[in-house]
Design goal:
The complex is a heterodimer of chains A (281) and B (349). By secondary structure, chain A is mostly helical. Chain A contains 12 helices and 2 strands. Chain A has a two-stranded antiparallel sheet. Classes of the chains: A mainly alpha (281), B alpha/beta (349). Chain B: Belongs to the bacterial solute-binding protein 1 family.
């Protein structure tokens, strides 16, 4: 009798962690999203749909589409860059491999604000890349490169690059190279081997890292405010403005719940699609 | 054994909390950055010297964010600070939900030398806030890139700024009021939503000229001093002090007036040190301390002019003689959510 209880008790641990750190705050957020906004104070306990209704004004709708666009573009670009980079790194000499891994790890300990400020200086016309280009004569009238969508995207990539690269590292270093070697000895050009052998083997890993980065970039706050134009501000910025700036917790909570639903839909769709492809192939 | 340990623990805890109440220390919060640092270094030591009450100075975030924190803390019956510096609008919002403690006016006799209107009472006559300082928001420019200082708020629209202006991203910076006064003759246009939309549409014309819609004041100041931005809306006091440090910036009062804001000292309802806080307020509004604040912080005093020993030159440097532009707090309170949505929509589209 005692024995059969043990697995259940072990199973209780992750459940308790989920409840404490995720489900309870989430439940509270959902409850608050139905509260009534009190413009002078904080909120009144009640059950209203007003906060959700607000989302369907064109403004919030545009902002959410914008967040989805910048997060998905950022996720795609960062994976497109990190995947080949890691592919090259794992084939290096052990010492260089270690160097790159340590460098990538140390990149991860930089805070978003520090990275943002570093890019801000690099993009500024008085001290950064534009100044340099003007000095060597490549840019006649140098101007700041930020705030702009491109600057924000570069901020995204700096944030996510090391994360994605390190996600690929173990799997890529330990992959079975015999298939590639077979393809090569049979006369397939290296580029074709990469597309036809390596990439298909890593499709699930690529899909899941794109999904992870997508979710990560949806929640980024500093990069859009620091490096982006107001046209690039994402839902996270607006939610912060509403919840902290205007003390409108119910609206902030409702917008968060909607973004959560969007995210779940997209990731669910992505996972379903990749599973279907796997099943058919 | 364990009982004794527990006892010692309880005793030391009691001693700790006890020291918070009886050993005279108060926690004072002010807007973070240069402001809070200068108050801590220059103004507070004088108070400690006179009263023996030590001041623990903490930085507070921008108005509304701080109000949110105070409200949350009050729900848990806690006061993050014994005293806070708050703007007019925050004071009214907090008062409407009984966030502020009632002060005993007899303990703050220096209110006699205050300018009119700087003591705020609740509907049933309790003193809730006392004026702390006033500050101007003006038209600031970088002197390296803008040779000729602006003369009117209209210059924002008519001059070519090379797309390098910096404006705040929130609706209650005073820009709406300045726009109303400059282009629509008076604040009356702001009384209706149609009127507010007209004012916002006018500000939208500036969008091609604006490089930075700032929410972080530090970012604006740094960019202006470096010449990344050539001008914008910013605090008169900080700009003036930067200029005195030799940085290429200047603050100009346009002919329609600078934007004047008032700040008050409030005591959060759950503070345990109300008496010490009253002593603190009484010290901070004393004419000689008000004069010191004007000299060191560049803010406009709230004490009567003839009670202070400021020279004409010193007095003129922290303000202007013309009628100032006033934030239309009642409109921002009434239309708050609608207005902030409209404004955000305008700048982010």
């Amino acid at each position: 009798m005692k024995r059969s209880l043990v697995p259940y008790l072990i199973g209780l641990f992750p459940l308790a962690m989920m409840v404490v750190f995720f489900l309870a705050p989430l439940a509270f957020m959902i409850v608050v999203s139905f509260y009534e906004r009190d413009p002078l104070g904080f909120y009144k306990v009640s059950f209203v749909w007003d906060n959700y209704a607000k989302f369907f004004s064109s403004f919030y709708y545009t902002i959410s589409m914008r967040s989805l666009w910048s997060a998905s573009l950022g996720a795609l670009v960062v994976v497109l860059l990190a995947f080949p980079a890691m592919y090259i790194i794992v084939d290096m000499h052990r010492r260089w491999q270690l160097f790159w891994v340590i460098l990538l790890l140390s990149l991860m300990c930089l805070s978003e604000v520090i990275i943002g400020f570093a890019w801000l200086i690099l993009f500024s016309e008085s001290s950064g890349i534009p100044k340099f280009l003007g000095w060597v004569g490549l840019w006649e009238n140098p101007r700041s490169l930020s705030p702009s969508f491109g600057a924000m995207l570069i901020g995204f990539i700096t944030l996510g690059f090391s994360l994605v690269a390190l996600m690929f590292y173990p799997q890529m270093a330990q992959r079975d190279r015999s298939i590639e070697e077979a393809a090569l000895t049979l006369g397939t050009p290296p580029a074709r081997v990469f597309y036809k052998v390596v990439l298909p083997n890593f499709t699930p890993a690529i899909v899941s890292s794109v999904a992870t980065m997508f979710v990560y970039f949806l929640g980024v706050f500093v990069m859009p405010t620091m490096l982006g134009r107001p046209q690039d501000w994402n839902m996270t910025v607006i939610i912060t403005d509403k919840a902290v700036g205007d003390a409108n917790m119910p609206l902030g909570a409702a917008l968060s719940v909607i973004m959560l639903l969007f995210t779940l839909l997209i990731i669910g769709g992505l996972m379903l699609a990749s599973r279907k492809r796997e099943a058919s192939s | 054994m364990s009982l004794r340990k527990t006892f010692t623990l309880v005793a030391s805890c009691a001693a700790l909390t006890g020291s918070g109440v009886f050993a005279e220390e108060i926690t004072v919060s002010a807007w973070g950055g240069f402001f809070e640092e200068t108050l801590k270094e220059v103004i507070y030591p004088g108070f400690t010297e006179e009263t023996g009450i030590t001041v623990r100075s903490i930085a507070q975030p921008a108005d509304q964010a701080w109000l949110t924190q105070l409200t949350n803390a009050a729900r848990a019956k806690k006061a993050p600070a014994d005293l806070s510096l708050v703007a007019d609008e925050v004071f009214v919002r907090g008062q409407s939900i009984n966030l502020w403690a009632n002060l005993n006016a007899d303990n703050i006799p220096n209110t006699q030398t205050l300018l009119d209107g700087f003591t705020k009472t609740s509907d049933n006559g309790n003193l809730n806030a006392v004026g702390a300082l006033s500050w101007f928001t003006t038209f600031v420019t970088n002197t390296d890139t803008v040779a000729e200082a602006p003369t009117s708020w209209a210059d924002l629209w008519t001059r070519d700024w090379d797309g390098k202006l910096g404006l705040t991203s929130n609706a209650n910076s005073g820009l709406m009021e300045a726009t109303a006064l400059t282009f629509f003759g008076s604040y009356d246009v702001m009384e209706t939503r149609e009127g507010l939309e007209k004012v916002i549409a006018k500000i939208a014309e500036l969008k091609p000229q604006v490089q930075l819609w700032y929410r972080d004041e530090g970012q604006f100041q740094q960019s202006l001093e470096a010449g990344e931005l050539v001008g914008g809306l910013y605090y008169h006091d900080v700009t003036m002090l930067s200029a005195m440090d030799g940085l290429p910036v200047v603050s100009t009062f346009p002919r329609e007036g600078g934007i004047l804001g008032d700040a008050y000292w409030i005591v959060p309802r759950d503070s345990k040190n109300i008496e010490a806080a009253e002593k603190f307020i009484n010290y901070m509004i004393r004419p000689d301390v008000q004069a010191e604040m004007a000299r060191n912080l560049g803010v406009a005093p709230v004490a009567k002019r003839d009670a202070m020993d400021l020279t004409d030159e010193e007095f003129a440097s922290v303000g202007s003689s013309g009628t100032p532009i006033r934030s239309q707090t009642h409109i921002h309170l009434r239309e708050g959510d609608w207005l902030s949505d409209k404004y955000l929509e305008m700048i982010s589209q």
